[in-house]
Amino acid sequence: MAGTQYREAVVDLLGALAYGELTAFERLADDAAFAPTIADKAALAAMAVSEYQHFARLRDRLVELGASPEVAMEPFVQALEAFHERTAPADWLEGLVKAYVGDGIAEDFYREVSAYLDDSTRELVLAVLEDTGHSAFAVERVRAAIEEDPRLAGRLALWGRRLVGEALSQAQRVAAERDALSSLLVGGTERPGADLAEVGRMFARLTDNHILRMAVMGLSA
Amino acid sequence: MAGTQYREAVVDLLGALAYGELTAFERLADDAAFAPTIADKAALAAMAVSEYQHFARLRDRLVELGASPEVAMEPFVQALEAFHERTAPADWLEGLVKAYVGDGIAEDFYREVSAYLDDSTRELVLAVLEDTGHSAFAVERVRAAIEEDPRLAGRLALWGRRLVGEALSQAQRVAAERDALSSLLVGGTERPGADLAEVGRMFARLTDNHILRMAVMGLSA
Questions:
Q1: Does B48 contact A52 at a Cβ distance shorter than 8 Å?
Q2: Which of B25, B6, B4 lies closest to B14, judged by CA?
């Protein structure tokens, strides 16, 4: 892996992703407490376990790279905790929408970034982004709930908008603070990245996909 | 596996154990939120994952036995949820003491009961009772905290007593309601169990082990 700045950027990226998986584990396990049935509780727990296994792979890779996983994750703790604090779901359905919308945006973002990575890092990132089956589960449950009580759609659509707003605001904070990480995307002194037009198109794709996901759940974005 | 009552008792036992593991998963994942460092958070998450894997093995066995895991777990939901509600830890150390003391008593109890099981069920029960490394972790952290601030010992000792009291009260409730399960221990119409003196000795062993565990953490029972 060439270049100090590139290595630093990869450690940042894997650290952010690792802490993201660890908080996803916690969030899903928390949501399990809201589950209306034991089977739903077990399904959420299984998804939480998958997130943990993703976390463990990222942590192992950080160790392979000679980085301390804790040090690598540390810069992203505040932003991720702030996001989760500001978007604590009030019930089972809000938790499902959050997991689906939040994971979706994070997945799209990391998939876009993976284009600028070396093969071995890209492979790992794509592997840990693999859907744990949560999406289908969340979509199915949210759609069924809205069919049963259409008034839910308004509240959940608002909730979706709030989630995206908070996610973008925390992401901007991280981008402003972590130069190495941002340079992965927009290029740095050592290597070219996407030009500004490409970054713009990337955000358009992220937004389009978000609107699509909301529609799949039966919600307006 | 001979006898309807025995099969019913085994399904009860595996159901109780399975829901116990599922709530242990949730409890450890919740405790991870209190963790003072990212490494501690990851360690708790790993233990939660082990509990989930135990749960999954028990659920699979229930399916093999032709039982619905959800139906088998249902009778124990209320008692286990009531126990956890009444003993929600206020901080990281209370969570560690609860996990160590609670898992210890549960483990001792199921180990005693396993003497009255057929080989294949006993093997499974002993396998899922295997320590997930949580004990050493909890003991080390609690001892270190008390060494640093000896005043903690009084509060945590009281907390240990409350945990045992609540655990016994919920266990009695379950025993009173689930005849098949109780008959495993004390015998039923189809097969002999322990006599009353043996049940008394079993409770003495459970109590002795609890006192020992408290002492290991540096707490009086």
A1: yes
A2: B6
CA dist B169 and A146 (Å) reads: 41
- Is residue B32 less than 8 Å (CB to CB) from chain A? yes
Nearest-by-Cβ selection for A26 from B29, B53, B55: B29
Average pLDDT over residues A56-61: 96
Compute CA distances B25 → A41, B8, B150, B212, whole Å: 11, 26, 30, 25
Residues of B with CB below 8 A from A55's CB? 42, 45
Domain coverage including residue A163: 4-217
pTM over 0.80, yes/no: yes
Q: A46 to chain B nearest CA, in Å?
A: 7
Could you report the per-residue pLDDT of B125-149, keeping only the tens digit for each?
999 988 767 788 889 999 999 999 9
B69 touches chain A (CB under 8 A): yes
Check CB contact of A159 with chain B, cutoff 8 Å: no
| Site of tokens 């939480």 | A48
How far apart, in Å, do the first and last CA atoms of chain A sit?
40
CATH number at residue A119: 1.20.1260.10
Which structure tokens are listed for A160? 């979706």
Residue recorded with tokens 């992703």: A17
Cβ-based contacts of B36 with chain A (< 8 Å): none
Query: A40 and chain B: CB distance < 8 Å anywhere?
Result: no
Domain count along chain A: 1
- Give the Cα separation of A65 and A63 in Å (integer): 5
- Count of Cβ atoms closer than 10 Å to residue B49 Cβ: 24
- Quick one: CA dihedral A154, A155, A160, A163, positive or negative? positive
